[in-house]
Amino acid sequence: MATDTLKSRPGASGGLRRLLLDNGALTALVVLVIAMSALSGDFLTADNLLNVGVQAAVTAILAFGVTFVIVSAGIDLSVGSVAALSATVLAWSATEAGVPVALAVVLAVVTGVGCGLVNGFLVSYGKLPPFIATLAMLSVGRGLSLVISQGSPIAFPDSVSHLGDTLGGWLPVPVLVMVVMGLITALVLGRTYIGRSMYAIGGNEEAARLSGLRVKRQKLVIYALSGLFAAAAGIVLAARLSSAQPQAAQGYELDAIAAVVIGGASLAGGTGKASGTLIGALILAVLRNGLNLLSVSAFWQQVVIGVVIALAVLLDTVRRKAGATPVAAGTAQGGKGRQAATYVLAAVVAVAVVGATSLLHGQDSTGKERKIGLSLSTLNNPFFVQIRAGAEQEAEKRGVDLTVTDAQNDASQQANQLQNFTSEGLGAIVVNPVDSDAAGPSVRSANKADIPVIAVDRGVGKADTAALVASDNVEGGRLGARALAEKLGGKGTIVILQGQAGTSASRERGAGFAEGLRAYPGIEVVAKQPADFDRTKGLDVMTNLLQAHPDIDGVFAENDEMALGAIKALGTKAGRSVQVVGFDGTPDGLKAVEAGTLYASVAQVPKELGRIAVDNALRAADGKRVEELVKVPVKVVTKENVAGFGG
Fold first, then answer.
1. Can you give the residue ranges of the Periplasmic binding protein domain (predicted)?
2. Domains by residue range for the chain, with CATH
3. For the ranges 199-213, 343-357, 371-385, 519-533, which has the lowest average pLDDT?
4. Are 372 and 356 a contacting pair, CB within 8 Å?
5. DSSP string of 250-277?
6. pTM above threshold 0.90
7. Phi, psi (5° rounding) for residue 74?
8. Is the CB of residue 228 less than 8 Å from the CB of residue 65?
9. Do residues 244 and 151 make contact, with C-beta atoms less than 8 angstroms apart?
10. Angle at CA 542, nearest 5°, toward 540 and 547?
């Protein structure tokens, strides 16, 4: 694809056709940039293009490391978990353990390299398939990250957090780190003994061994390099979010592999270059950025990205059948000159066409004050789906263009979405944070751009919000404690299912419940475990807790989804020998209350939250005064009053 150095077979087409076929990924990137510029007047701005670079940085750095592995015919599925583990080690060492920051950075890098060495040892000496070895490290790395952090985000040292800032107020540091790591990758692949060994091993491992290469030792180095780059990516990501997230970079290993393959590398090994990997990462970033700007549904975005990956590989197949044969880096005569000329030509074409299309959007700046963005933590939860419904109804009523994005419980993805909203110059932003502190840096960027931000359901840490629209979670926790304790007659043993670590909703509901429970000394909490506001996790966690505490009398879940999972685990005990109290008053939760399996739900009115959030966003955009805290009352709904609850 784009970045393989190519030799043409006799009879191959010349001219433009050959240029396009031999540089498939580069062609795709140019076409994407032109298309996005034509479709959205907000795409071709300096701020947004820098956003694309920042959003590509972490994926690109991970992918550079994965390039080494794929060139040598291996695979590394652990880089996302290793990135999270390395960042967690740094943050924990510098804060909890009191280690000097410089030493903490070294420990983080050593952690990444160590994980890579373990992968290499398992593959080389343990004879495990790379898929299995790195899949195991994926689980181990994520588990250790959760163990060290106890499931909660850890604040990042300020001196390292500057990696997420900008130089001179405009040039993002993550982009600089990405460029440096890309140059190192190109140098290693094209100018070093280990780089040539990678191509030899990927081309024919047995031939490489017979020619005198110490393949096992080389693989140790290759996987160690992948771990090193993963550690660097984790540090950059945590610096962007100002916190080490134990669940950060989930799924990033697939993006990294996709970037390498889109960039022209073969999963069979033997081909691949740093420049191609960078182009692959930029394609993914441009796609996500542009689709956000075009208000494409987050669900459809996944479909589009999957199709693009498939088309990229298909184009590579077409190119090879058309007579272009990839050659390992540095082996083609005159290849570098032709490649440089190709990149310059691509840049000139892109600038010329983009400049022309930008004239189509000369008037797009008018009316942006009536356009707002809503970033939700997830749409895989009925509660947030109802918030979206209420927001969309209010926006339609007021004649407002509302763009809704789904962060899929990924704090870094939400940071990207908020940055896109900021560069788009919206009149206001409504955010329901995945993690309250991790949303802070992106909200501060909106603050600098004078865009008012409204937080809904969960607050934002270390940033200014015009208003927080939320249910009274503390009072709801108190009401939940009172309802459960009175149902149990003031005595018994209970367990608590906690929500997403780091969210204000989980903290406040838990604090309110603990406060309310003080009035009932006969109630003993025998276990607390996070289930991340998720029904499936609620089922699994409750199943596990029942093994240790089979005779509990009650369960308090910080949302209805976890409560419904707990009910499934309890089976016939739910509503009979074990009383369960949830939170939110979702439709499924209220059905369970009506059926008697869920004793009570501390009901919110999520549609009202969405409606009020949009109303406050418009008021703030118009410069009108809004209340800093808008509390929406909650109510305990039981079987006795569920029929009269209007939601």
1. 372-624
2. 54-285 (no CATH), 369-470+607-631 (3.40.50.2300), 473-605+636-644 (3.40.50.2300)
3. 343-357
4. no
5. TTHHHHHHHHHHHTT--TTSS---HHHH
6. no
7. -110, -170
8. yes
9. no
10. 100
